[in-house]
């Protein structure tokens, strides 16, 4: 079977494959700023940190936070709209915890867990996994002003960011932090070149599909979310404490692509294929040949993929909140 005929349709496998790409990409300065803010809070606060992660997928950020010692004591609620992702998280997290020196046990309530351990920094995390639309979740009055930290990782560029910030904001306590990461920002680079002009056309049209995406009758997505977030956050009453680039850079070394990153790349090419397969501005045969060439480049370990993205750390600005 030719590479392009293989199906690359498992979203949960894509998310798992994306984890190592994100680990490299996340902006270390922004992460350190977050860690510093949490450390200062730990010194003052009487209660455990309350975290909500929206669009949390299969729990990669939970693993990352534990592995990097982000929290000491925290209550973490992960919300994702896809029940399959939540099911995968509940299967994978115990395996990950056991393999990385953590103890994970089920809590008293359904879909709740306690994860402890982590060597020198010892984390104690209570985790709730919830399959729900995050905007429905945020609309529940019982959830309002409950959280000290909101995490949205590879999420805000999929939605109408200004509207999303407005709808999610009631979840947050005064001075709460927002850690908003992997926000796409207008550049999809694929090397080597297949045909410079055709490559550029595909990039432009692909980005246009993000800008024109409509979900439930609402605009949903922006190919320049990263740069636009500076203004969106300010208007939402969020002070930007730190920001920096978090580009995905995927390439094969002498032993091929790391871990499952070839799958990640095939999935990205199929995402572009799916977005543009019926586009009137592309010759269908030429486009299919282009897709096949990109898959073949991955098979040979030739394809280099770079996506420009930005990370943000913000804090609810009390002065603006009162306006
Ligand atoms: C690109 S994935 C990122 C997942 C995860 N943050 C990661 O990076 O591994 C975006 C996630 O947002 C979820 N999602 C999209 N719209 C949502 C909504 N309205 N409420 C909750 N989750 C949503 C999807 O199900 C998907 O898992």
How would you describe what is shown here?
With 323 residues, this protein is of the alpha/beta class. It has one domain: Rossmann fold, CATH 3.40.50. It is 42% helix and 28% strand. The chain is built from eleven helices and twelve strands. It has helices at 11-25, 28-44, 60-67, 83-99, 134-139, 161-168, 196-212, 225-235, 261-276, 284-299, 318-321; strands at residues 49-54, 73-80, 102-106, 112-117, 123-131, 147-153, 172-191, 214-215, 218-219, 238-245, 248-250, 304-316. Strands 1, 2, 3, 4, 5, 6, 7, 10, 11 and 12 form a ten-stranded mixed β-sheet that branches. Helix 1 (11-25) crosses helix 9 (261-276) and helix 9 packs antiparallel against helix 10. The termini are far apart. Bound molecules: S-adenosylmethionine (SAM). Residues 15, 18, 54-57, 60, 79-82, 85, 133-135, 153-155, 158 line the site of S-adenosylmethionine. Residues 15, 18, 54-57, 60, 79-82, 85, 133-135, 153-155, 158 line the site of S-adenosylmethionine (SAM).
Specify the structural class: alpha/beta
CATH topology: Rossmann fold
Major sheet description: 10 strands, mixed
Low-confidence segments, given as residue ranges, are 1-5
- Our count of helices gives 11
What is the CATH architecture assignment?
A: 3-Layer(aba) Sandwich
What is the CATH superfamily?
Answer: Vaccinia Virus protein VP39
Order of helices and strands: HHEHEHEEEHEHEHEEHEEHHEH
């Amino acid at each position: 079977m030719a590479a392009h005929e293989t199906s690359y349709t498992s979203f949960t496998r894509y998310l798992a494959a994306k984890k190592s790409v994100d680990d490299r990409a996340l902006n270390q300065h922004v992460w350190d700023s977050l860690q510093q803010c949490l450390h200062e809070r730990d010194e003052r606060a009487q209660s455990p940190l309350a975290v909500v992660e929206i669009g949390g997928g299969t729990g990669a950020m939970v693993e990352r936070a534990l592995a990097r010692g982000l929290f000491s004591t925290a209550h973490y609620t992960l919300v994702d709209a896809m029940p399959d992702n939540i099911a995968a998280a509940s299967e994978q997290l115990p395996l990950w915890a056991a393999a990385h020196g953590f103890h994970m046990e089920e809590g008293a309530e359904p879909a709740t867990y306690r994860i402890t351990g982590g060597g020198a920094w010892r984390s104690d995390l209570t985790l709730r996994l919830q399959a729900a639309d995050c905007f429905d979740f945020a609309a529940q009055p019982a959830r309002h002003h409950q959280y000290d930290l909101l995490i949205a990782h590879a999420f805000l560029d999929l939605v109408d960011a200004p509207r999303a910030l407005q709808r999610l904001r009631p979840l947050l306590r005064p001075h709460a932090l927002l850690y908003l990461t992997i926000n796409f920002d207008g550049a999809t680079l694929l090397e080597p070149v297949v045909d410079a002009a055709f490559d550029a056309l595909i990039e432009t049209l692909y980005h246009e599909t993000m800008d024109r995406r409509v979900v439930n009758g609402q605009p949903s997505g922006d190919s320049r979310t990263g740069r636009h977030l500076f203004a969106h956050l300010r208007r939402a009453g969020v002070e930007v404490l730190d920001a920096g680039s978090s580009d995905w850079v995927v390439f094969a070394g002498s032993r091929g692509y790391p871990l499952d990153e070839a799958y990640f790349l095939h999935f990205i090419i199929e995402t572009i294929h799916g977005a543009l397969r019926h586009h009137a501005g592309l010759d269908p045969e030429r486009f299919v040949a282009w897709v096949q060439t990109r898959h073949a480049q991955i098979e040979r370990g030739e394809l280099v993929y770079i996506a420009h993205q930005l990370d943000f750390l913000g804090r609810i600005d009390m002065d603006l909140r009162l306006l």
